[in-house]
Amino acid sequence: MVIGGALYNSTGEGEYASANVWGWNNGWNQLTDLPQQRAWPSAAYDSLRHRVVVFGGANYTGSSTRDTLAFHNNVWSVIASGGAPVRYHAAMAYDAGRDRVVLFGGSSASTTLGDTWEFDGTVTCPGKPEPVRMRGFGVQSTQETLEDEAEKARDGGDHPEAA
Fold first, then answer.
1. Is residue 119 situated within a structural domain?
2. Which of 15, 34, 41, 65 has the most CB atoms within 10 Å of its CB?
3. To which H or E segment does residue 149 belong?
4. What is the DSSP letter of 25?
């Protein structure tokens, strides 16, 4: 899926957020638009509930968003409107073993974020999940983190699962 995004006008100047959503099924097909335009949102597929979960993004009205949306059966629903602070360019993945969507890092205005948040996938979850620090991740570039983790994995490093 391609969700939202930043678009430029026909002269290549100016930027605005898109609400378009596209899916691949033997070719690109336009799906139901997001309820609000946003660029650089985070997304993960929740395989237990068969839905795509989207958090945040920039909306070009001078702020970023902090709502959590679900896309299921070609319909968007707001499933939470709070929790993690506003951000865009964050990484997000679904942890099937723990039934959690995990959100890491991103940017907010001119700040680089290095925090980790979890969402349990239900509408009734706390409005502000407790932040969880993950070993090996901090406020450093993604490339540095990947290089550090790859080196630890090659060396049988200090990972709990390697013990």
1. yes
2. 41
3. helix 142-154
4. S
Contact 128, 120 (CB under 8 A): no
More confident residue, 106 or 109: 106
Compute the residue count for the chain.
163
Question: The tokens of 147 are what?
Answer: 């290089």
Question: Per-residue confidence at 10, pLDDT binned at 50, 70, 90?
Answer: confident
Is residue 121 within 8 A of residue 92, CB to CB? The reply is no
- Sign of the CA dihedral 139, 144, 146, 152? negative
**Residue 25: CATH number of its domain:** 2.120.10.80
Torsion of CA 138, 140, 144, 145, to 10 degrees: 20
**CA dist 1 → 98, 116, 127, 153 (Å):** 24, 24, 27, 31
What's the CA gap between 19 and 94, in Å, rounded? 23
In a domain, 92, yes or no: yes
From the number of C-beta atoms within 10 Å of its C-beta (0-12, 13-18, 19+), residue 7 rates as middle
| 16, 115, 2, 110 alpha-carbon torsion, rounded to 10° | 20
